[in-house]
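User: Can you recover a sequence for this backbone? Please restate the input before giving your answer.

Assistant: Of course. Working from this structure:
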Protein backbone atom coordinates (compact mmCIF):
# COMPACT_ATOMS: atom_id res chain seq x y z
CA UNK A 1 0.00 0.00 0.00
CA UNK A 2 1.40 3.42 -0.97
CA UNK A 3 0.45 6.95 -0.02
CA UNK A 4 -1.36 7.19 -3.36
CA UNK A 5 -3.49 4.16 -2.47
CA UNK A 6 -4.40 5.79 0.81
CA UNK A 7 -6.03 8.69 -1.00
CA UNK A 8 -9.64 8.20 -1.98
CA UNK A 9 -9.76 10.76 -4.77
CA UNK A 10 -10.45 10.01 -8.44
CA UNK A 11 -7.32 10.05 -10.67
CA UNK A 12 -8.34 13.24 -12.45
CA UNK A 13 -8.72 15.05 -9.10
CA UNK A 14 -5.40 13.97 -7.60
CA UNK A 15 -3.27 16.77 -6.25
CA UNK A 16 0.38 16.70 -5.27
CA UNK A 17 0.41 15.67 -1.62
CA UNK A 18 3.54 16.32 0.40
CA UNK A 19 2.05 15.48 3.80
CA UNK A 20 -1.09 13.53 4.63
CA UNK A 21 -3.70 15.22 6.81
CA UNK A 22 -4.03 13.08 9.94
CA UNK A 23 -5.87 15.62 12.07
CA UNK A 24 -8.98 13.37 12.11
CA UNK A 25 -7.11 10.34 13.50
CA UNK A 26 -7.49 9.59 17.21
CA UNK A 27 -3.82 9.06 18.03
CA UNK A 28 -4.30 8.75 21.77
CA UNK A 29 -7.36 8.30 23.95
CA UNK A 30 -5.74 7.79 27.37
CA UNK A 31 -7.39 4.37 27.78
CA UNK A 32 -5.52 2.69 30.63
CA UNK A 33 -4.09 -0.82 30.54
CA UNK A 34 -6.63 -3.11 32.16
CA UNK A 35 -4.49 -4.50 34.99
CA UNK A 36 -0.97 -4.82 36.43
CA UNK A 37 -0.47 -8.33 35.06
CA UNK A 38 -1.22 -7.16 31.51
CA UNK A 39 1.08 -4.18 31.85
CA UNK A 40 3.89 -6.32 33.24
CA UNK A 41 3.60 -8.94 30.51
CA UNK A 42 3.58 -6.32 27.78
CA UNK A 43 6.58 -4.57 29.30
CA UNK A 44 8.40 -7.90 29.62
CA UNK A 45 7.86 -8.54 25.91
CA UNK A 46 9.35 -5.17 24.89
CA UNK A 47 12.12 -4.30 27.38
CA UNK A 48 14.29 -7.41 26.86
CA UNK A 49 14.39 -6.76 23.12
CA UNK A 50 15.94 -3.33 23.67
CA UNK A 51 18.40 -4.51 26.32
CA UNK A 52 19.73 -7.45 24.29
CA UNK A 53 21.74 -7.63 21.10
CA UNK A 54 19.68 -10.43 19.55
CA UNK A 55 17.86 -8.30 16.98
CA UNK A 56 19.63 -6.24 14.34
CA UNK A 57 19.26 -2.51 14.89
CA UNK A 58 17.28 -0.45 14.17
CA UNK A 59 13.95 -1.90 15.25
CA UNK A 60 10.85 -0.74 17.04
CA UNK A 61 9.14 -2.75 19.77
CA UNK A 62 6.09 -1.13 21.35
CA UNK A 63 3.20 -2.04 23.65
CA UNK A 64 -0.37 -0.73 23.26
CA UNK A 65 0.44 1.67 20.42
CA UNK A 66 -2.09 2.29 17.67
CA UNK A 67 -1.22 0.72 14.32
CA UNK A 68 -2.80 2.84 11.59
CA UNK A 69 -2.86 0.77 8.41
CA UNK A 70 -5.23 3.04 6.48
CA UNK A 71 -5.84 6.78 6.45
CA UNK A 72 -9.56 6.58 7.19
CA UNK A 73 -10.79 4.32 9.95
CA UNK A 74 -9.79 3.13 13.37
CA UNK A 75 -6.37 1.71 14.12
CA UNK A 76 -5.76 -1.76 15.41
CA UNK A 77 -3.94 -1.79 18.76
CA UNK A 78 -1.80 -4.86 19.37
CA UNK A 79 -0.61 -5.48 22.90
CA UNK A 80 2.91 -5.68 21.46
CA UNK A 81 4.32 -5.11 17.98
CA UNK A 82 7.78 -5.55 16.51
CA UNK A 83 8.95 -3.84 13.35
CA UNK A 84 12.45 -4.46 12.00
CA UNK A 85 14.52 -1.93 10.09
CA UNK A 86 12.72 1.13 11.47
CA UNK A 87 13.11 3.46 14.40
CA UNK A 88 10.73 5.87 16.01
CA UNK A 89 11.10 9.59 15.63
CA UNK A 90 12.48 11.56 18.55
CA UNK A 91 10.04 14.50 18.42
CA UNK A 92 6.78 13.37 20.05
CA UNK A 93 5.31 16.86 19.72
CA UNK A 94 4.46 15.96 16.12
CA UNK A 95 1.23 13.91 15.89
CA UNK A 96 2.60 11.63 13.19
CA UNK A 97 5.36 10.51 15.58
CA UNK A 98 3.07 9.30 18.38
CA UNK A 99 1.59 6.18 16.75
CA UNK A 100 2.65 3.63 14.17
CA UNK A 101 1.44 5.20 10.93
CA UNK A 102 2.08 2.69 8.15
CA UNK A 103 2.71 5.39 5.56
CA UNK A 104 5.28 7.15 7.77
CA UNK A 105 7.32 3.99 8.47
CA UNK A 106 6.85 2.66 4.94
CA UNK A 107 6.08 -0.85 6.15
CA UNK A 108 3.95 -2.85 8.55
CA UNK A 109 5.36 -4.54 11.65
CA UNK A 110 6.52 -8.13 11.20
CA UNK A 111 5.01 -9.35 14.49
CA UNK A 112 1.87 -8.47 16.46
CA UNK A 113 1.20 -10.08 19.84
CA UNK A 114 -2.02 -10.16 21.86
CA UNK A 115 -2.33 -11.16 25.53
CA UNK A 116 -5.85 -12.43 26.24
CA UNK A 117 -7.56 -12.35 29.62
CA UNK A 118 -11.16 -12.42 28.50
CA UNK A 119 -12.92 -12.80 25.18
CA UNK A 120 -13.68 -9.09 24.76
CA UNK A 121 -10.65 -8.14 22.62
CA UNK A 122 -11.76 -9.89 19.42
CA UNK A 123 -8.34 -11.51 19.02
CA UNK A 124 -9.56 -14.82 17.56
CA UNK A 125 -13.37 -14.66 17.84
CA UNK A 126 -15.76 -11.72 17.90
CA UNK A 127 -17.16 -10.92 21.33
CA UNK A 128 -20.91 -10.68 21.79
CA UNK A 129 -20.52 -6.94 22.38
CA UNK A 130 -18.65 -6.50 19.08
CA UNK A 131 -21.27 -8.56 17.27
CA UNK A 132 -24.00 -6.29 18.68
CA UNK A 133 -22.06 -3.27 17.41
CA UNK A 134 -22.01 -4.80 13.94
CA UNK A 135 -18.33 -5.69 13.76
CA UNK A 136 -17.62 -8.50 11.36
CA UNK A 137 -13.84 -8.99 11.54
CA UNK A 138 -11.56 -10.24 14.31
CA UNK A 139 -8.03 -8.98 14.86
CA UNK A 140 -6.89 -12.23 13.28
CA UNK A 141 -8.86 -11.34 10.12
CA UNK A 142 -7.49 -7.79 10.01
CA UNK A 143 -3.87 -8.82 10.57
CA UNK A 144 -4.16 -11.42 7.80
CA UNK A 145 -5.80 -8.94 5.43
CA UNK A 146 -3.18 -6.21 5.88
CA UNK A 147 -0.27 -8.62 5.64
CA UNK A 148 1.14 -8.93 9.15
CA UNK A 149 3.58 -11.81 8.89
CA UNK A 150 3.29 -13.24 12.41
CA UNK A 151 0.42 -12.96 14.89
CA UNK A 152 0.79 -14.51 18.33
CA UNK A 153 -1.98 -14.84 20.93
CA UNK A 154 -1.13 -15.72 24.53
CA UNK A 155 -4.23 -16.90 26.39
CA UNK A 156 -3.47 -16.54 30.10
CA UNK A 157 -6.48 -18.60 31.20
CA UNK A 158 -5.51 -21.54 29.00
CA UNK A 159 -1.78 -20.93 29.58
CA UNK A 160 -0.97 -21.50 25.96
CA UNK A 161 0.21 -19.57 22.98
CA UNK A 162 -1.64 -19.71 19.68
CA UNK A 163 0.40 -18.57 16.73
CA UNK A 164 -1.49 -18.43 13.47
CA UNK A 165 1.41 -17.88 11.10
CA UNK A 166 0.88 -15.63 8.12
CA UNK A 167 2.73 -15.94 4.87
CA UNK A 168 1.73 -13.36 2.28
CA UNK A 169 -1.52 -12.72 4.14
CA UNK A 170 -2.75 -16.32 4.12
CA UNK A 171 -3.78 -17.76 7.47
CA UNK A 172 -2.16 -21.06 8.39
CA UNK A 173 -3.18 -23.43 11.16
CA UNK A 174 -2.66 -22.48 14.78
CA UNK A 175 0.42 -23.67 16.54
CA UNK A 176 -0.45 -24.53 20.13
CA UNK A 177 2.54 -24.21 22.44
CA UNK A 178 2.01 -25.71 25.91
CA UNK A 179 2.71 -23.64 29.01
CA UNK A 180 6.11 -25.26 29.91
CA UNK A 181 7.52 -23.45 26.86
CA UNK A 182 6.81 -20.14 28.61
Amino acid sequence: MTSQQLLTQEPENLEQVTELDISHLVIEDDTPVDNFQSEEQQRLLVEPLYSSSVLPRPFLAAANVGLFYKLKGDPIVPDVMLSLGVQRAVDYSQRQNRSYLFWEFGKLPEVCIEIVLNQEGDELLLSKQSQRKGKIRTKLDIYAQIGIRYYVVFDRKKTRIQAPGFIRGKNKDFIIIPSPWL
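That completes the design. Helices lie at 3-6, 36-51, 102-105, 128-132, 139-146.
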